[in-house]
Specification:
This protein is mainly β. It has one helix and seven strands.
Length: 134
């Protein structure tokens, strides 16, 4: 499966990086998919479920949009698969954005937000505001 119009589900060869476990399920991020729209940032997340969900899914890819200034997130798209790592048949396709919700401090979603909303290099060039003390 290739990218559909730049926003659809993509193949299992994405550059997934393990982020941690949420509710017993492995959660990964694809940093190569980070895109900016004004002050908002979008990124893809993959959840590999430890056991079958009620919808018979073993994985789901979710396109997240973060409002970097207002500390909020919403789901733009969600695709559910019968196998882990987006394998097998696609059983669910949700392409309507969800409502915005607050990103809670100390959560895995907060880590996703920090990665997605980071702009530019981690180390800034020396300037007036970040000049080291003498």
């Amino acid at each position: 499966m290739g990218v559909v119009g730049g926003w659809g589900a993509f193949n299992a060869h994405a550059a997934w990086t393990y982020m941690g476990h949420m509710d017993g399920n492995a959660v990964l991020i694809d940093r190569t998919t980070i895109q900016f729209k004004g002050r908002n940032a979008m990124v893809w997340m993959l959840t590999n479920y430890a056991t079958l969900t009620s919808q018979e899914l073993l994985s789901a890819s979710t396109h997240l949009e973060f409002d970097c200034d207002q500390n909020k997130v919403r789901y733009l798209q969600v695709y559910g698969y019968e196998g882990q790592m987006q394998t097998g048949a696609r059983l669910i396709s949700v392409t309507q954005p969800s409502v915005w919700v607050k990103v809670e401090f100390g959560t895995l979603m907060k880590s996703f937000q920090q990665i997605a909303c980071l702009r530019g290099p981690l180390i800034r060039p020396e300037g007036v505001l970040n000049k080291p003390p003498k």
